[in-house]
Amino acid sequence: MLEDQFSICLAAMICAVLGAGMYFNLARGHESERGISTLAVGGALHQAGWFIWALSQFQSAGIGTWLAIVLLLLGQLGLLAGTRRAFARPALLGWWGALVPLLLIAIVASLLQWISETQSALMQALMLAPLAFQIGREAFSPSNDESWSLPRWTLVGVTLGLALTLMMTALGLVTGLITLNKAAMIWAMLACISALLLPYSYQLLISHRLYARLSKLVRYDALTGLLNRRGLEEHARRELHRARKHQTSLGLMLIDINQFRVINQRYGYGAGDVALKKCARKLREIAGESALIGRIAGEEYCLILSDKNSQSLRSLAVEIEMALQSLTIEHSDHSFHLSVTLSLVKYGRHGNQFEELLQSAEEKLQQRKGNLRSETPPEGASTITP
Protein backbone atom coordinates (compact mmCIF):
# COMPACT_ATOMS: atom_id res chain seq x y z
CA MET A 1 0.00 0.00 0.00
CA LEU A 2 1.22 3.49 -0.88
CA GLU A 3 2.08 5.81 2.01
CA ASP A 4 -0.60 8.35 1.00
CA GLN A 5 -3.24 5.65 0.76
CA PHE A 6 -2.16 4.30 4.14
CA SER A 7 -2.56 7.76 5.73
CA ILE A 8 -5.99 8.36 4.16
CA CYS A 9 -7.29 4.93 5.19
CA LEU A 10 -6.08 5.53 8.73
CA ALA A 11 -7.82 8.90 8.73
CA ALA A 12 -10.99 7.22 7.41
CA MET A 13 -10.96 4.81 10.33
CA ILE A 14 -10.62 7.68 12.80
CA CYS A 15 -13.42 9.62 11.06
CA ALA A 16 -15.66 6.53 11.16
CA VAL A 17 -15.19 6.24 14.93
CA LEU A 18 -15.88 9.94 15.43
CA GLY A 19 -18.99 9.74 13.24
CA ALA A 20 -20.26 6.76 15.19
CA GLY A 21 -19.87 8.81 18.36
CA MET A 22 -21.94 11.59 16.77
CA TYR A 23 -24.76 9.14 16.01
CA PHE A 24 -24.56 7.85 19.58
CA ASN A 25 -24.84 11.38 21.00
CA LEU A 26 -27.72 12.11 18.62
CA ALA A 27 -29.65 9.08 19.86
CA ARG A 28 -28.89 9.79 23.50
CA GLY A 29 -29.75 13.49 23.35
CA HIS A 30 -32.88 13.32 21.18
CA GLU A 31 -34.32 9.88 21.84
CA SER A 32 -37.91 11.19 21.82
CA GLU A 33 -37.60 12.58 18.27
CA ARG A 34 -39.20 10.61 15.47
CA GLY A 35 -36.86 8.39 13.48
CA ILE A 36 -33.86 8.94 15.77
CA SER A 37 -33.44 5.31 16.83
CA THR A 38 -33.60 4.13 13.20
CA LEU A 39 -31.11 6.81 12.15
CA ALA A 40 -28.77 5.85 15.00
CA VAL A 41 -28.79 2.15 14.11
CA GLY A 42 -28.40 2.83 10.40
CA GLY A 43 -25.68 5.39 11.05
CA ALA A 44 -23.76 3.02 13.33
CA LEU A 45 -23.82 0.30 10.66
CA HIS A 46 -22.77 2.83 8.03
CA GLN A 47 -19.82 3.99 10.12
CA ALA A 48 -18.85 0.38 10.89
CA GLY A 49 -18.87 -0.29 7.16
CA TRP A 50 -16.47 2.57 6.45
CA PHE A 51 -14.22 1.46 9.31
CA ILE A 52 -14.00 -2.13 8.09
CA TRP A 53 -13.55 -1.01 4.48
CA ALA A 54 -10.59 1.21 5.47
CA LEU A 55 -9.19 -1.61 7.60
CA SER A 56 -9.53 -4.09 4.74
CA GLN A 57 -7.28 -1.95 2.56
CA PHE A 58 -4.30 -3.04 4.68
CA GLN A 59 -4.66 -6.62 3.42
CA SER A 60 -5.30 -8.25 0.08
CA ALA A 61 -8.19 -10.50 1.14
CA GLY A 62 -11.49 -9.48 -0.51
CA ILE A 63 -13.86 -10.87 2.13
CA GLY A 64 -13.19 -7.85 4.40
CA THR A 65 -14.16 -5.44 1.64
CA TRP A 66 -17.39 -7.32 0.94
CA LEU A 67 -18.23 -7.37 4.66
CA ALA A 68 -17.75 -3.61 4.68
CA ILE A 69 -20.05 -3.21 1.66
CA VAL A 70 -22.73 -5.32 3.40
CA LEU A 71 -22.56 -3.04 6.46
CA LEU A 72 -22.58 0.08 4.28
CA LEU A 73 -25.63 -1.16 2.40
CA LEU A 74 -27.51 -2.11 5.57
CA GLY A 75 -26.51 1.22 7.10
CA GLN A 76 -27.84 3.12 4.10
CA LEU A 77 -31.12 1.19 4.27
CA GLY A 78 -31.38 2.18 7.94
CA LEU A 79 -30.60 5.80 7.10
CA LEU A 80 -33.20 5.75 4.34
CA ALA A 81 -35.89 4.43 6.70
CA GLY A 82 -34.81 6.87 9.42
CA THR A 83 -34.82 9.82 7.02
CA ARG A 84 -38.34 8.98 5.88
CA ARG A 85 -39.43 8.68 9.50
CA ALA A 86 -37.69 11.93 10.44
CA PHE A 87 -39.73 13.75 7.80
CA ALA A 88 -43.01 12.22 9.09
CA ARG A 89 -43.43 9.56 6.42
CA PRO A 90 -43.73 5.78 6.81
CA ALA A 91 -40.37 4.06 7.14
CA LEU A 92 -40.99 1.81 4.14
CA LEU A 93 -38.06 0.55 2.08
CA GLY A 94 -40.07 -0.98 -0.75
CA TRP A 95 -38.04 -2.56 -3.50
CA TRP A 96 -34.83 -1.05 -2.09
CA GLY A 97 -34.71 -4.06 0.23
CA ALA A 98 -34.07 -6.20 -2.87
CA LEU A 99 -30.51 -4.82 -2.94
CA VAL A 100 -29.60 -7.12 -0.04
CA PRO A 101 -30.10 -10.44 -1.92
CA LEU A 102 -28.48 -8.89 -5.02
CA LEU A 103 -25.47 -8.00 -2.91
CA LEU A 104 -25.26 -11.54 -1.56
CA ILE A 105 -25.28 -12.88 -5.12
CA ALA A 106 -22.47 -10.47 -6.00
CA ILE A 107 -20.46 -11.64 -2.99
CA VAL A 108 -20.81 -15.29 -3.99
CA ALA A 109 -19.84 -14.45 -7.58
CA SER A 110 -16.75 -12.58 -6.34
CA LEU A 111 -15.62 -15.31 -3.94
CA LEU A 112 -16.02 -17.94 -6.65
CA GLN A 113 -14.03 -15.63 -8.97
CA TRP A 114 -16.78 -15.47 -11.54
CA ILE A 115 -16.14 -11.74 -11.76
CA SER A 116 -12.89 -9.76 -11.72
CA GLU A 117 -11.73 -7.32 -9.04
CA THR A 118 -12.64 -4.38 -11.28
CA GLN A 119 -16.14 -5.77 -11.80
CA SER A 120 -16.47 -6.31 -8.05
CA ALA A 121 -15.54 -2.69 -7.34
CA LEU A 122 -17.96 -1.58 -10.05
CA MET A 123 -20.82 -3.59 -8.52
CA GLN A 124 -20.04 -2.23 -5.05
CA ALA A 125 -20.29 1.34 -6.30
CA LEU A 126 -23.49 0.62 -8.22
CA MET A 127 -25.07 -0.95 -5.12
CA LEU A 128 -24.37 2.03 -2.85
CA ALA A 129 -24.84 5.02 -5.16
CA PRO A 130 -28.63 4.69 -5.81
CA LEU A 131 -29.35 4.35 -2.08
CA ALA A 132 -27.32 7.47 -1.28
CA PHE A 133 -29.21 9.32 -4.01
CA GLN A 134 -32.56 8.12 -2.62
CA ILE A 135 -31.70 9.36 0.90
CA GLY A 136 -31.01 12.80 -0.56
CA ARG A 137 -34.21 12.60 -2.57
CA GLU A 138 -36.22 11.84 0.57
CA ALA A 139 -34.76 14.91 2.28
CA PHE A 140 -35.39 16.98 -0.87
CA SER A 141 -39.05 15.93 -1.25
CA PRO A 142 -41.47 18.93 -1.35
CA SER A 143 -43.97 16.93 0.73
CA ASN A 144 -41.76 17.12 3.82
CA ASP A 145 -43.40 18.62 6.90
CA GLU A 146 -40.85 21.40 7.45
CA SER A 147 -39.50 24.32 5.47
CA TRP A 148 -36.16 24.47 3.74
CA SER A 149 -33.21 25.34 5.95
CA LEU A 150 -29.41 25.18 5.83
CA PRO A 151 -29.32 21.83 7.73
CA ARG A 152 -31.72 20.30 5.23
CA TRP A 153 -29.65 21.61 2.32
CA THR A 154 -26.55 20.17 4.01
CA LEU A 155 -28.10 16.71 4.26
CA VAL A 156 -29.20 16.81 0.62
CA GLY A 157 -25.79 18.04 -0.51
CA VAL A 158 -23.85 15.39 1.42
CA THR A 159 -25.98 12.46 0.25
CA LEU A 160 -26.12 13.59 -3.37
CA GLY A 161 -22.40 14.28 -3.30
CA LEU A 162 -21.82 10.76 -1.98
CA ALA A 163 -23.99 9.28 -4.73
CA LEU A 164 -22.31 11.38 -7.44
CA THR A 165 -18.81 10.40 -6.30
CA LEU A 166 -19.71 6.70 -6.28
CA MET A 167 -21.24 6.95 -9.75
CA MET A 168 -18.23 8.83 -11.12
CA THR A 169 -15.95 6.16 -9.68
CA ALA A 170 -18.04 3.45 -11.35
CA LEU A 171 -17.93 5.35 -14.66
CA GLY A 172 -14.17 5.73 -14.38
CA LEU A 173 -13.73 2.00 -13.77
CA VAL A 174 -15.91 1.14 -16.79
CA THR A 175 -14.09 3.50 -19.14
CA GLY A 176 -10.68 2.66 -17.75
CA LEU A 177 -9.95 6.27 -16.78
CA ILE A 178 -9.11 5.25 -13.22
CA THR A 179 -7.43 2.16 -11.83
CA LEU A 180 -8.39 0.11 -8.79
CA ASN A 181 -5.73 1.89 -6.71
CA LYS A 182 -7.08 5.31 -7.70
CA ALA A 183 -10.62 4.14 -6.98
CA ALA A 184 -9.50 2.99 -3.54
CA MET A 185 -7.93 6.41 -2.90
CA ILE A 186 -11.15 8.14 -3.93
CA TRP A 187 -13.20 5.85 -1.68
CA ALA A 188 -10.82 6.48 1.23
CA MET A 189 -11.21 10.25 0.86
CA LEU A 190 -14.96 9.76 0.46
CA ALA A 191 -15.00 7.74 3.69
CA CYS A 192 -13.23 10.56 5.55
CA ILE A 193 -15.69 13.19 4.33
CA SER A 194 -18.98 11.30 4.49
CA ALA A 195 -18.20 9.62 7.83
CA LEU A 196 -18.10 13.07 9.43
CA LEU A 197 -20.44 15.21 7.33
CA LEU A 198 -23.37 12.78 7.17
CA PRO A 199 -23.89 12.40 10.94
CA TYR A 200 -23.17 16.11 11.37
CA SER A 201 -25.89 17.02 8.86
CA TYR A 202 -28.40 14.85 10.75
CA GLN A 203 -27.39 16.56 13.99
CA LEU A 204 -27.90 19.96 12.40
CA LEU A 205 -31.30 18.91 11.07
CA ILE A 206 -32.60 17.67 14.42
CA SER A 207 -31.19 20.67 16.30
CA HIS A 208 -32.79 23.07 13.81
CA ARG A 209 -36.11 21.26 14.19
CA LEU A 210 -35.97 21.61 17.98
CA TYR A 211 -35.07 25.30 17.66
CA ALA A 212 -37.97 25.89 15.25
CA ARG A 213 -40.33 24.06 17.60
CA LEU A 214 -39.23 26.14 20.60
CA SER A 215 -39.52 29.30 18.52
CA LYS A 216 -43.07 28.34 17.59
CA LEU A 217 -43.98 27.62 21.20
CA VAL A 218 -42.74 31.07 22.18
CA ARG A 219 -44.70 32.86 19.44
CA TYR A 220 -47.88 30.80 19.03
CA ASP A 221 -50.83 30.07 21.28
CA ALA A 222 -50.97 26.37 22.10
CA LEU A 223 -54.77 26.22 22.37
CA THR A 224 -55.85 27.97 19.17
CA GLY A 225 -52.71 27.79 17.03
CA LEU A 226 -52.86 31.57 16.50
CA LEU A 227 -50.05 33.98 17.24
CA ASN A 228 -49.64 34.99 20.87
CA ARG A 229 -48.91 38.55 22.04
CA ARG A 230 -45.18 38.28 21.37
CA GLY A 231 -45.57 36.65 17.97
CA LEU A 232 -48.23 39.14 16.85
CA GLU A 233 -46.11 42.06 17.97
CA GLU A 234 -43.09 40.82 15.99
CA HIS A 235 -45.15 40.29 12.83
CA ALA A 236 -47.01 43.58 13.29
CA ARG A 237 -43.77 45.55 13.44
CA ARG A 238 -42.73 44.09 10.09
CA GLU A 239 -46.13 44.95 8.59
CA LEU A 240 -45.91 48.49 9.98
CA HIS A 241 -42.44 48.88 8.47
CA ARG A 242 -43.81 47.74 5.11
CA ALA A 243 -46.77 50.13 5.40
CA ARG A 244 -44.42 53.05 6.12
CA LYS A 245 -42.07 52.11 3.30
CA HIS A 246 -44.73 51.59 0.63
CA GLN A 247 -47.28 54.05 2.09
CA THR A 248 -50.03 51.45 2.24
CA SER A 249 -52.96 51.22 4.64
CA LEU A 250 -53.06 49.03 7.74
CA GLY A 251 -55.82 48.36 10.24
CA LEU A 252 -55.91 46.74 13.65
CA MET A 253 -59.06 45.01 14.88
CA LEU A 254 -59.61 43.98 18.49
CA ILE A 255 -62.26 41.38 19.37
CA ASP A 256 -63.39 40.55 22.90
CA ILE A 257 -65.75 37.75 23.97
CA ASN A 258 -68.18 39.28 26.45
CA GLN A 259 -68.60 37.70 29.89
CA PHE A 260 -66.18 34.91 29.12
CA ARG A 261 -65.61 34.29 32.80
CA VAL A 262 -69.33 33.57 33.21
CA ILE A 263 -69.08 30.98 30.41
CA ASN A 264 -66.27 29.19 32.24
CA GLN A 265 -68.14 29.29 35.53
CA ARG A 266 -71.47 28.16 34.12
CA TYR A 267 -70.41 25.57 31.52
CA GLY A 268 -66.89 24.66 32.61
CA TYR A 269 -63.42 25.50 31.32
CA GLY A 270 -63.73 22.84 28.63
CA ALA A 271 -66.62 24.78 27.10
CA GLY A 272 -64.52 27.94 27.20
CA ASP A 273 -61.70 26.18 25.34
CA VAL A 274 -64.14 24.96 22.68
CA ALA A 275 -65.44 28.51 22.25
CA LEU A 276 -61.94 29.93 21.86
CA LYS A 277 -60.94 27.34 19.26
CA LYS A 278 -64.17 27.79 17.30
CA CYS A 279 -63.71 31.56 17.24
CA ALA A 280 -60.11 31.13 16.06
CA ARG A 281 -61.17 28.88 13.17
CA LYS A 282 -63.96 31.25 12.14
CA LEU A 283 -61.62 34.27 12.22
CA ARG A 284 -59.10 32.46 10.03
CA GLU A 285 -61.89 31.41 7.66
CA ILE A 286 -63.22 34.97 7.25
CA ALA A 287 -60.02 37.02 7.39
CA GLY A 288 -57.99 34.65 5.20
CA GLU A 289 -54.39 33.54 5.30
CA SER A 290 -53.02 37.00 4.55
CA ALA A 291 -54.29 38.46 7.84
CA LEU A 292 -52.24 38.31 11.03
CA ILE A 293 -54.44 36.88 13.78
CA GLY A 294 -53.40 36.56 17.39
CA ARG A 295 -54.90 35.68 20.73
CA ILE A 296 -53.36 38.34 22.94
CA ALA A 297 -55.31 37.71 26.13
CA GLY A 298 -57.62 35.11 27.61
CA GLU A 299 -60.63 36.03 25.48
CA GLU A 300 -59.23 38.78 23.24
CA TYR A 301 -58.21 38.40 19.60
CA CYS A 302 -56.29 40.89 17.52
CA LEU A 303 -56.17 41.10 13.72
CA ILE A 304 -53.64 43.03 11.63
CA LEU A 305 -55.13 43.77 8.20
CA SER A 306 -53.01 45.24 5.43
CA ASP A 307 -54.04 47.01 2.23
CA LYS A 308 -57.67 47.54 3.25
CA ASN A 309 -59.50 50.87 3.15
CA SER A 310 -61.95 52.06 5.82
CA GLN A 311 -65.01 50.70 4.03
CA SER A 312 -63.45 47.23 3.63
CA LEU A 313 -62.46 47.20 7.29
CA ARG A 314 -65.98 48.14 8.39
CA SER A 315 -67.53 45.46 6.20
CA LEU A 316 -65.12 42.84 7.50
CA ALA A 317 -65.77 43.87 11.10
CA VAL A 318 -69.54 43.54 10.67
CA GLU A 319 -69.10 40.15 9.00
CA ILE A 320 -66.86 38.90 11.80
CA GLU A 321 -69.19 40.20 14.52
CA MET A 322 -72.24 38.52 12.99
CA ALA A 323 -70.36 35.28 12.31
CA LEU A 324 -69.00 34.94 15.84
CA GLN A 325 -72.32 35.76 17.47
CA SER A 326 -74.08 33.20 15.30
CA LEU A 327 -71.67 30.42 16.32
CA THR A 328 -73.25 27.60 18.29
CA ILE A 329 -70.90 26.34 20.98
CA GLU A 330 -71.65 22.78 22.05
CA HIS A 331 -69.90 21.08 24.91
CA SER A 332 -71.11 18.07 26.84
CA ASP A 333 -74.85 18.61 27.33
CA HIS A 334 -74.66 22.39 26.96
CA SER A 335 -75.21 24.61 23.95
CA PHE A 336 -74.87 28.39 23.89
CA HIS A 337 -74.02 31.41 21.74
CA LEU A 338 -71.40 34.10 22.20
CA SER A 339 -71.58 37.86 22.46
CA VAL A 340 -68.58 39.78 21.15
CA THR A 341 -67.44 43.38 21.00
CA LEU A 342 -65.13 44.77 18.31
CA SER A 343 -63.09 47.89 17.76
CA LEU A 344 -61.14 49.17 14.76
CA VAL A 345 -58.18 51.53 14.47
CA LYS A 346 -56.04 52.55 11.50
CA TYR A 347 -52.34 53.14 11.12
CA GLY A 348 -51.60 56.85 10.92
CA ARG A 349 -54.94 57.99 12.29
CA HIS A 350 -54.76 56.31 15.70
CA GLY A 351 -51.03 55.70 16.02
CA ASN A 352 -47.84 54.77 14.20
CA GLN A 353 -46.59 51.99 16.48
CA PHE A 354 -48.14 48.65 17.43
CA GLU A 355 -48.41 49.61 21.10
CA GLU A 356 -50.17 52.88 20.23
CA LEU A 357 -52.62 51.15 17.91
CA LEU A 358 -53.35 48.44 20.45
CA GLN A 359 -53.91 51.00 23.21
CA SER A 360 -56.27 53.00 20.98
CA ALA A 361 -58.16 49.83 20.04
CA GLU A 362 -58.46 48.85 23.72
CA GLU A 363 -59.84 52.27 24.63
CA LYS A 364 -62.39 52.15 21.80
CA LEU A 365 -63.32 48.61 22.82
CA GLN A 366 -64.01 49.61 26.41
CA GLN A 367 -65.94 52.67 25.22
CA ARG A 368 -68.08 50.56 22.92
CA LYS A 369 -68.72 48.06 25.73
CA GLY A 370 -69.94 50.92 27.89
CA ASN A 371 -72.22 52.19 25.14
CA LEU A 372 -73.67 48.72 24.57
CA ARG A 373 -74.43 48.37 28.27
CA SER A 374 -76.21 51.72 28.42
CA GLU A 375 -78.24 51.39 25.25
CA THR A 376 -79.29 48.86 22.64
CA PRO A 377 -78.39 49.89 19.06
CA PRO A 378 -81.12 49.72 16.43
CA GLU A 379 -81.42 46.50 14.52
CA GLY A 380 -79.05 46.35 11.58
CA ALA A 381 -76.99 49.30 12.80
CA SER A 382 -73.28 49.05 13.50
CA THR A 383 -71.15 51.37 15.62
CA ILE A 384 -67.86 49.95 14.38
CA THR A 385 -65.75 52.70 12.83
CA PRO A 386 -62.05 52.80 12.12
TrEMBL record:
SMART domains: GGDEF (SM00267). GO terms for molecular function: diguanylate cyclase activity. CDD domains: GGDEF. This is diguanylate cyclase. NCBIfam families: GGDEF (TIGR00254). Residues 365-386 are annotated as: Disordered. It comes from Chitinibacter bivalviorum. It is an enzyme of class 2 (transferase). The chain crosses the membrane at residues 6-24, 36-55, 61-81, 93-115, 152-178, 184-206. Residues 248-386 form the GGDEF domain. InterPro entries: Diguanylate_Cyclase, GGDEF_dom, Nucleotide_cyclase, Rev_trsase/Diguanyl_cyclase. It holds the Pfam family GGDEF. It catalyses: 2 GTP = 3',3'-c-di-GMP + 2 diphosphate. Its EC number is 2.7.7.65. Keywords: Membrane, Transmembrane, Transmembrane helix.
